[in-house]
Amino acid sequence: MTFTELRKQYPAFVFRDIQAEYVNGKLAVFYTFEIEGLGRFEPYWTFPCAQPDLTDPALRRLLFSLGMAELVSYWKITCSPVVRIGMQMTKEQADWWKRLYFGGLGEFFYRNGIETDFDSFMTIECGGEPQDFGAAKQTALSGRLIPVGGGKDSIVTLNLLKAQLGDAYAYQINHRDSSEQAALLAGIPKERILEPARKLHPKMLECNKRGFLNGHTPFSAIVAFSAVLTAYLHGLSEVVLSNESSASESTVSDAEVNHQYSKSYQFEQDFFAYEREYLKTGVRYYSLLRPLTEFQIARYFASCDTKYHEIFRSCNAGAKEDKWCGHCAKCLFVAVILSPFLPYAEIVRLLGSDLFNLPEMAPVLQELCGALPNKPFECVGSRKEVNLALCLAIANAERRGEALPLLLNSYKQSPLYAEYAEAAADFGQEWDPQHNLPEDLAALVRRECVDKFA
């Protein structure tokens, strides 16, 4: 079934309802979406918390907005041209959501061969009750919520803030051992590790199997809205992300198609504006690592307690089993970005795979470094820092008199090595001024992640 055929057959998608109740120490939130002619979808969330005031206007705005973030995962099944929302929004608010969907679905459109534009891909029609923009009832906010995914980035955030974790909470959607272990190792006790549960409706997975449209959606937007909701429920004033400047680079070299759109600085700015204009909770959302590159984050991570090295996991393919798969683009990127800072034998041990000696990974390395036009559709660093990391890894191996692994030896023969080798030694002092860090934290990050390595 094609994009055009599905839109004709299923012309309307409806956000029908939100139901919330407090049961057994958890706020349970149920959403009802419907693709007319196909059926209803009823995903739900549960948030461990104290009894909330379900009449709080800010809480109701948060629940609605989380539903809007969830909506796109179900809308993409048929890409229905009309989306009907059972809640009134201004044109500006509806356009905000359209921008998120359009930017966050760039990879979905690209990989499914869909040609569309911002004006025509979706029309949002609003009705029903007006939103209540009354003052938030939760006002005495303090403390931080730190989303912990189990990879090196959130570990770096935890380590940078290790002296300020006395009132901090860790956050993860659904349980993952590596995330819990990282938070515990940083000193956040188990009772301050918050794990809301997100449950997809099984009918969506059935539609995927039946040949309806499928692909990447802006998951980090769901992280953003659910994290701010969780922070608000627990009276916390900040959500501190671990997204870096490298996340803003387009995955496709000749188009604005970014796998990491909802991790980009553009989305961070947009979300900040949305919270101020429409949520009005008082919860501040920013990324501690925004001024840094993946290269700088890897350098700092390599200097952290080796206990963190043993537990971190960044592989999406192995996520369900909380392990490294050892043969995907994300595993290879992690090996590359750590290779200037850790012995290659140690990287092989940690990831359980000799990635630089796997011939089948050669085209993936070409994607990562820009020899091919598109990067892998994964959360990976910029083409520039991949090249510079490879050059430094080669220099380190040659200085130690070690034979180069297959992929590094092949890379050394490429024009990219000649282009980047001379500049590699001076890389790592970058500082992106586009960030939303408080002044004291900006100074901390610069001192620990840039100046210390000068």
Can you describe this structure in just a few lines?
This protein is α/β, with parallel strands linked by helices. It has helices at 3-9, 57-75, 91-104, 106-111, 152-160, 177-186, 202-209, 219-233, 265-279, 294-302, 306-311, 329-338, 344-351, 362-369, 383-399, 406-412, 415-424, 439-449, and strands at residues 12-23, 26-35, 39-41, 44-48, 82-87, 123-129, 144-147, 169-171, 193-194, 197-199, 238-241, 284-287.
Average of the residue pLDDT scores: 95
Number of strands: 12
Shape: globular
**With helices defined by DSSP (H or I, 4 residues minimum), what is the helix count?**
18
Low-confidence runs:
none
Gyration radius (Cα, Å) is 22 Å
The fraction of residues assigned to DSSP E strands is 5-15%
Gap between N and C termini, in Å?
Answer: 56 Å
Order of helices and strands: HEEEEHEHHEEHEHEEHHEHEHHHHHHHHH
Helix content bin: 40-55%
Structural class: alpha/beta
Described by strand count, sense and barrel closure, the largest sheet is:
7 strands, mixed
Number of domains: 2
Give descriptors for this structure.
454 residues; 2 domains; globular
Give an overview in words.
With 454 residues, the protein is α/β, with parallel strands linked by helices. It has two domains: 3-132 and 141-148 and 176-287, no CATH class; 324-430, no CATH class. The chain is 42% helix and 14% strand. It is built from 18 helices and twelve strands. The chain has helices at 3-9, 57-75, 91-104, 106-111, 152-160, 177-186, 202-209, 219-233, 265-279, 294-302, 306-311, 329-338, 344-351, 362-369, 383-399, 406-412, 415-424, 439-449, and strands at residues 12-23, 26-35, 39-41, 44-48, 82-87, 123-129, 144-147, 169-171, 193-194, 197-199, 238-241, 284-287. Strands 1, 2, 3, 4, 5, 6 and 10 form a seven-stranded mixed beta sheet that branches. A hairpin with a 2-residue loop joins β1 and β2. α12 packs across α15 (383-399). The longest helix has 19 residues, at 57-75. The mean pLDDT is 95.
